[in-house]
Every structure is written in C-alpha cells, then in structure tokens.
Amino acid sequence: MICIITGDIIGSRKIKDSWLISLKKALQTVSGQNDKWEIFRGDSFQIEVEPENAIRTVAYLKACIKINKPADVRMGIGLGEAKNKRKKLSESSGDAFVNSGIAFDGLKQAKVNLAIKTDYPDFDEEINILIKLALIAMNGWGVVAAEMVKLALEHEHVSQNELAALSGRTQPLVSGALKRANYSELMEMDKLYRKKLNQMRSK
C-alpha cells in the first residue's frame, strides 16, 4: 500500500507566487531522498508518501503554504496499491492514484479542502470526520501559527525552548502559537489515524 496526495493552491492566480518556493521546499523535505513528487499545471502537485505519514504530511504542506498569507491548499489523500509505477508520478497508475483523484475531485462538492479515500468506506467515514474537525483549526492558522507548526513538525522531538531558539522567538510566543494552532490535538489525531490504519491493514 502507498499514499498519493494530490493538491492545488487555492486562488493561486490572485496571489503572489511566493507559495511556489515554499511548496517546492516542502515537497523536497517530505519526500527526502525518494524524490517522488511532481508539480504540474503551474499550481497542482502530487507526492507519494508512506501511508502512516499521510496526516503529518498534509498538515506540514498546509503549514508551509499558509505561511504565504492568504495562500491555502486543497488536498486529496488516496491510499491503495500501485500497479504501474513509472518515474513520473503522473504516468503511474493504481488504486492509490485513482483514490487520490476521487478524494481531490470531491473537495468542492463536500465544501472542504482536505479529504481521504481508500477502498474501506468505514475507515474513510471515520477519518474524514476527524479531518473536518481538524480543518476548523487548520483553516484558521495565521502566519505565526503556521510557522510554528512547520517548525514543530520538522523538529518533533525538541522542547518548546529549543523551538523558540530555532525560530528566534520567545518560548511563551511559541507555546501560544502552537496552542492556537491546536497542535497537540492534531498530533493526537495523527496517532489515532495510525492506529486505525494498522487495524484496517490487519483485516
């Protein structure tokens, strides 16, 4: 099983393209040495990640984009098998790609900017409810909150004092920004998602 995330930048033609540099850096960071990502049609992208990392990845990508106010991002997460894996993601095929496309195409109708699709409807229903609740916080991230979420995800095992030193901000400001971003709740959601994913895979 693999995870394919398909996304685009909301209203990209009406805003400065500083988001493009952030998007490229974020995709490179997430993919690491694998380099399994692609930007196409100017403001659309696709990336392959490990299924367990889906929630962290979309949170990280959203934080990286929302630093460039008023930019935001739409994403469809697809889990499934890959049939024909080619060098270019856009030329590959399989359930993960189909599911990602279905999730992405359904965003406008569902009036959300993030959703997941797998071959397991019960799993999708549960996780999409969690995602809708998480979006209440994530869609409201300001620049500082987005910066702190990005930094916290990049350095997940460091203290808030260390995050403050890395960011050049005070510890109370870092703490306040992460609290406003509902970062700890997001990490609890990520933990629950991983648990549900493992249960789904063991069926």
Architecture overview:
This protein is 54% helix and 16% strand. The mean pLDDT is 92. It is α+β, with helices and mostly antiparallel strands and 203 residues long. A five-stranded mixed sheet has the order 2-3-1-4-5, sandwiched between helices. It is built from nine helices and five strands, in the order E-H-E-E-H-E-H-H-E-H-H-H-H-H. It has a single domain (2-202), classed as Reverse transcriptase/Diguanylate cyclase domain (Alpha-Beta Plaits, 2-Layer Sandwich), CATH 3.30.70. InterPro entries: SatD. This is Transcriptional regulator.
What is the structure about, briefly put?
54% of the residues lie in helices and 16% in strands. The model has no long low-confidence stretch (mean pLDDT 92).
Attribute tags:
16% strand; alpha+beta; 5 strands; 203 residues; five-stranded mixed beta sheet; Alpha-Beta Plaits
Distance between the termini: 14 Å
Rounded mean pLDDT score: 92
**Can you tell me the CATH architecture?**
2-Layer Sandwich
Largest sheet, strands/sense/barrel: 5 strands, mixed
Number of helices: 9
CATH class membership: Alpha Beta
Portion in helices? 40-55%
Q: Give the amount of beta strand, in percent.
A: 15-25%
- Tell me the series of helices and strands, N- to C-terminal: EHEEHEHHEHHHHH
* Lateral arrangement of strands in the main beta sheet: 2-3-1-4-5
How many domains make up the 3D coordinates? 1
Structural class: alpha+beta
Rg computed from alpha carbons, rounded to a whole number of angstroms? 16 Å
CATH topology description: Alpha-Beta Plaits
Number of beta-strand segments: 5
Look at the structure and name the CATH superfamily. Reverse transcriptase/Diguanylate cyclase domain
Pfam family, one: SatD
InterPro entries: SatD
Protein name: Transcriptional regulator
Organism: Pedobacter jejuensis
